[in-house]
Amino acid sequence: MTTVDPSKPYDPDNIFAKILRGEVPCNKVYEDDHAFAFHDINPQAPVHILVIPKGEYVSWDDFSAKASDAEMAGFVKAVGHVAREQGLPVRGYRLLANIGRNGGQEVPHLHVHLFGGGPLGPMLAG
Ligand code: 5GP
Predict the structure, then answer these.
(1) Signal peptide span per the entry (predicted)?
(2) How far is the CA of 15 from the centre of ligand 1 (A)?
């Protein structure tokens, strides 16, 4: 799959924008004013959930530069809430955000991967 070009503006037709609008189905786990969470279609761990902000941000870089304090607080709280709701803090889990080409980001709407449910191995493979 093609990786995200960080110089391009937000594309409202990206797959996660379509999921947010309800145009593409997903296995939803959580939603509030600022965030939406759903299971990854191709899980890389026993639990693999994606948490996305509702605002139009390409990446963590874009979000951290432009989002309001309320959006940032809401998103961070939602990530923690989803992890607790899934029982992940008990044995531990991992957060990951890929950014741009070197990060291997494929979908140009900020998403935090939440991995858990078992030992996750080394931080980086390959
Ligand atoms: P990235 O490489 O951009 O950090 O991760 C994109 C993630 O989105 C991948 O783990 C991929 O499996 C997931 N993904 C791509 N398309 C869809 C989709 O249509 N539905 C869901 N639930 N996940 C998707």
Answers:
(1) none
(2) 8
The atom number, within ligand 1, closest to the CA of 98 reads 4
* d(C-alpha 97, C-alpha 110), whole Å: 8
Burial classification of residue 57, based on how many CB atoms lie within 10 Å of its CB (0-12 exposed, 13-18 middle, 19 or more buried): buried
On whether the pTM is more than 0.85, the answer is yes
Choose one of 19, 102, 107 to mutate for the ligand 1 pocket test, by most ligand atoms within 8 angstroms of C-beta: 107
Q: What is the CATH number of domain 15-116?
A: 3.30.428.10
In 3D space, the residue among 20, 22, 24 whose CA is nearest the CA of residue 51 turns out to be 20
Domain regions of the chain by residue span: 15-116
Distances (CA, A) of 79 to 43, 93, 95, 100: 18, 12, 9, 21
Mean pLDDT by 10 residues, the chain (126 residues): 84 98 98 98 98 98 98 98 98 98 97 97 85
